[in-house]
Amino acid sequence: xxxxxxxxxxxxxxxxxxxxxxxxGILTLDQLLAYYPRAYDSFEDPKKISDLREGETxxxxxxxxxxxxxxxxxxxxxxxxxxxDDSGSIPVTWFNMPYLxxxxxxxxxxxxxGRVKSKGGRLILEQPALYEEEAYKEMSRRLSPVYALSGNxxxxxxxxxxxxxxxxxELVREYLPDEIRREYHLAEYNFALEQIHFPEDxxxxxxxxxxxxxxxxxxxxxxxxxxxxxxxxxxxxxxxxPASSVKKILDSLPYELTGAQKKVWxxxxxxxxxxxxxxxxxxxxxxxxxxxxxxxxxxxxxxxGMQGALMVPTEVLARQHFQSLSQLLEDNALPYQAVLLTGSxxxxxxxxxxxxxxxxxxxxxxxxxxxxxxxxxxxHLALVITDEQHRFGVRQREAxxxxxxxxxxxxxxxxxxxxxxxxxxxxxxxxxxIDEMPANRIxxxxxxxxxxxxxxxxxxxxxxxxxxxxxxxxxxxxxxxEAMEGENVLDYSARLRSELPEWIQIDxxxxxxxxxxxxxxxxxxxxxxxxxxxxxxVIEVGVNVPNATVIMIENAERFGLAQLHQLRGRVGRGxxxxxxxxxxxxxxxxxxxxxxxxxxxxDGFEIANRDLKLRGPGDLFGVRQSGMMEFxxxxxYTDAGVLAQANEAVGQLLDEDPGLEKEEHQELRRKFEGIxxxxxxxxxx
Length: 685
Prior knowledge:
By secondary structure, the chain is α/β, with parallel strands linked by helices. It contains 22 helices and 21 strands.
C-alpha cells in the first residue's frame, strides 16, 4: 500500500479517530510511520514492595488484601486498596476507573505495574496497569514504544495504527548505495523502520536508529551541497558599497559596538561589495548584538537602491524587529520605507504590503515565512537575512533566496553549536562568531535544585513580581500523558494559580495553540498584563521582554545544555539582575553534574562544547536538543559521530557522481527528489 494513503485505509480508524491523529499532524501513512517513538518502555522483573523507591515505574507481583474502596472527590472517581507481597504492603490508587471495583478482587495474584509516588510520607503505587503473570513474562522480552501524545491520542492508538500500517505497506526499495551501507555498517531501510517502532531487542533498536539518523543527516547535507554548488556558480549582481547611513547610525547609538561586532561587520561590509555572492552565518549568544548588525546590512542595501528582507520565526518577534527598525529610521531621518508582512495581517494590509514590495517603494521588508509565499514579488531583492536558522529548513532559506537573482544571505543564530559541528551543519555558509558580550550585560544567576525547592522558588517568583517584574516557567509537556512522566503546562498553570496570590496573572503558551492565540498571549506578556507565563520551549525563539527577570525550568534534566542556555537567554535582557532556576525531577549525581555546567558558565559556546563531551550512548532516548535543526530522530550532540560519517559519505558520493546520474544511484536520486518536492510543497503552504 502506498504511504501517501490517508489513515482512513486502516481498519478501525473512523472519522473521529482520524481527526485525533490529524490534530497531532498525522494525515498519511508516511507521516504515521515517520512518527517515531520518543522512548521505549522495558518491562523489568517485578520488585519486592520493600525495594520500591519514589519516582520509579515498577512492577509488583502480589494481591489485594481487601476489596477496593471507591469514593468521589469533586466529580473524580478514586479507587483505593492495599497491595501485599511477602515483603510488605503498599496502598494502590486508580483514578476514573470505577469498573475495576468489580474485576480486581482480593486474593488473586497479579502483576501491578505503576508509578511509585510519595504522599504524606508514605509510598503509594498510582494508576497501576494489571497483567497476568504469563502475559507479563511475554512482555518483558521486548521493548514497547512510547510515543509523544497530545489531545485524545493514546499510546495504544498510535502503536496499533503503526503496526497495521507496517503490515500493509509495500516494502521500500533500498536507495542507499551498497558501498555506503557497507562502509558505515548501516542496516537495511525496511528493517530499520520495523525495528524503530517495535524493536526485538536493544541491539536491533540501536541498528535501526543509527540507520534512520544517518538518513536524516545524509539528505539534509545533500541539500546543503546543492545550495552551495548553485551559489558558487553565480557572480554577485548586487554590489553594495559602504553606506553613509551606517556611519550616521553608529555615531548615534548610545553604546559602542564590541570588538567582535566591529570585526564581523567589517567582514559583512566587505562581502556585500564583493564579486561573489555572500553566504554567511553569524553565530552569537543571546544579547551579543547580532540584531544591530543585521539592521546595518539592511540599511546598506536600502541606500544602494536595493531591497533587503529579514525573516524571523514568530509574528511577535517580526513586529518587534519592525518597530525597532522603524524607530531607527525615524530617529536618524533616513528616507527609506520599511514594511511588515505576516500571516495574520488583514487582506487589505497584506495587499498594500505586496504592492510596496513589488514596486520597490519598500526598501526593507520584515516578516515571518509569509515573505516566501508565492504572491510576494520583490523588485530588487539584494539581501536576505534569516533569524534563528534552526527554525527554518534549508528549503525555506532557499525559497527566500530564489525570490531575487541570487541575493546575498546572512543567517543569524543564537544557538551555541560547537564549531566542529557548525562547519558541517552550515556547510553552504562561511561562519562568523560574535564571541564577546557588551560590557554592561549582567550575567544571569543560575541555581540547580530538586523539586523540594519549589516552595521557596514560588516565594521568590512572588517577590520579583511584587517588585514589578515578570517570570517564565518552562515545562517539557503540553498536557498530562499516559506514556510520559514530567510537568505539563496545563496542570502546572492551575497549580501555580493555587500557590500564588490571586492578583498575579498567570497564563500559558504552547506550540499546539493557534498562531493568533500564541501571538495574543505573547503580546499580553510583553505589556505585563500576564506576570507569569507557563510555557513549553516554544518561547525558546522569543521576543525581547526586558521586564522578565526569572525563568524557572522544570524537569531540566530532559533538555540539552545548549537548549537550557538558550531558554535562560529569555531573561537578563533589561537593566535588572536576572535569575534562572533549574529544577530536576530525577535524582542522580550525573544529572546534577551536567546541570551544574550552567551554574558555572554563561558562555554559550563553552556550554555547547561541554555538552558535546558529556553526551554518551546512554542519552540516546533521554536528553535531546529538541527543535534544533528540526530533525525527527537525530540529535547533533548525541549523534555527532554519525553526522561526521554522513558528511563524509555525501562528499565521496558527489565527488564521484555530482548529478547522481549513474545507474546505481537512480533510486537514491528518486528518493532525494521526493524529499525536496515534499519540502517545497510544505514551504508554499
